[in-house]
Every structure is written in structure tokens, then in C-alpha cells.
Amino acid sequence: MKHGKRPSLNQKIIMKNVGLNPENWLVVKNLPDELWIVHRVSGRQKSIKY
């Protein structure tokens, strides 16, 4: 499993718009059209399209 980094302010706003709590998610990849995140506790991965 990849290790994530803390989300930036813009990434937190994107997560809130999707309905996720940014405190529980870490950013794995920040692509131009997609944001890959991983849950802090469970390790579940998710991708968010911009």
C-alpha cells in the first residue's frame, strides 16, 4: 500500500464537495484530472474526478 500525504486546502475543498471528511483521508496521487486518496484507518483507496 502506498503512503499518503496530508491534503492541501484545495484538495480538502474537493473532498468536502464530494461528501468526504478530509481529516480521514490522505492524498496518494494528484493528477491533473483525478485525485487518488487513501483512508487513514482502513487503507481503502478511492479516486475523485475533477
Question: What would the average pLDDT be, to the nearest integer?
Answer: 94
> Tally of extended strands?
3
> Which descriptor suits the 3D outline?
globular
- The separation of the N and C termini measures 24 Å
Radius of gyration: 10 Å
Helix content: 10-25%
Order of neighbouring strands in the sheet with most strands: 1-2-3
**What can be said about the biggest beta sheet?**
3 strands, antiparallel
What is the succession of H and E elements?
HEEE
Please tell me the total number of domains: 1
Question: Regarding quaternary structure, how should these chains be classified?
Answer: single chain
Helix count? Answer: 1
Q: Uncertain regions: pLDDT < 50 for 5+ in a row?
A: none
Question: How big a fraction of the residues is strand?
Answer: 25-35%
Question: By helix and strand content, what is the structural category?
Answer: alpha+beta
What descriptors fit this protein?
20% helix, 50 residues, single chain, three-stranded antiparallel beta sheet
Descriptive overview:
The protein is α+β, with helices and mostly antiparallel strands and about 50 residues long. It has one domain (about 10-50). Helix content is about 20%, strand content about 35%. It has 1 helix and 3 strands; from the N terminus they run αβββ. Strands 1-2-3 form a 3-stranded antiparallel β-sheet, with helices on one face. A hairpin with a 3-residue loop joins strand 1 (about 25-30) and strand 2 (about 35-40). The radius of gyration is 10 Å and the shape is globular. The mean pLDDT is about 95.
